[in-house]
């Protein structure tokens, strides 16, 4: 009888140890998913901020380079850059608002479809976990990021009287800011730093070069500004 009880206790211990091992392995498997979830949660705001800042910087710097290719007056460059800042910030805010609002509508519709297939308790748990995107916050973040990026070339050119020095400074400052934006975006998003920075920098150079060259070409054909 004692031997039978000892055998039963040993079996129970083995079962408890097996359950503990399974729970431990399950927790170890789930840990990477938590980290990945953190990146996905910040992905929307990161995308809006990085896209807005890069757009503001590249758009306004390219616009100023285009105007500077046919007009040496500093006032013309500053006015063009400021107009680009206002127009771009408004455009980014409206575009982001519409985009995120559409995403929100899609998610709400999906939640309603899934609600019909679940019990009341499951619906409550899913609703508590689900965080719908906020269109207003996304629009404000995008417009603010665009404005921050656009101010950089304006400040770089605003105090330089010599035309050639002003143009070179706009390119230099814009290039440094593009590298910084690329590094920050890569670090926050968990992507390769060098690849991200190079992609952002080369893209900015191409935009500024195309705007400068095409505007110079049009101006050289006799159009008076």
From TrEMBL:
Gene Ontology terms describing biological process: intracellular manganese ion homeostasis
InterPro entries per the UniProt record, alphabetical: Ccc1_fam
Keyword Ligase: no
Entry keyword Transmembrane: yes
Annotated localization: Vacuole membrane
Annotated membrane topology: Multi-pass membrane protein
Region feature (Disordered): 112-132
Secretion signal, residue range per the UniProt entry: none
Domain of life: Eukaryota
Main localization category: membrane
Catalytic activity entry: Fe(2+)(in) = Fe(2+)(out)
Bilayer-spanning residue ranges: 76-94, 138-160, 167-188, 200-219
GO molecular-function terms, A-Z: iron ion sequestering activity; iron ion transmembrane transporter activity; manganese ion transmembrane transporter activity
Basic and acidic residues: compositionally biased ranges: 112-131
CC per GO annotation: vacuolar membrane
Keywords noted in UniProt: Ion transport, Iron, Iron transport, Membrane, Transmembrane, Transmembrane helix, Transport, Vacuole
One of the Pfam families matching this protein, by short name: VIT1
Biological function: Vacuolar Fe(2+) uptake transporter.
Family stated for the protein in its record: Belongs to the CCC1 family.
Protein name (database record): Vacuolar iron transporter
Protein's organism: Durio zibethinus
Source lineage: Eukaryota, Viridiplantae, Streptophyta, Embryophyta, Tracheophyta
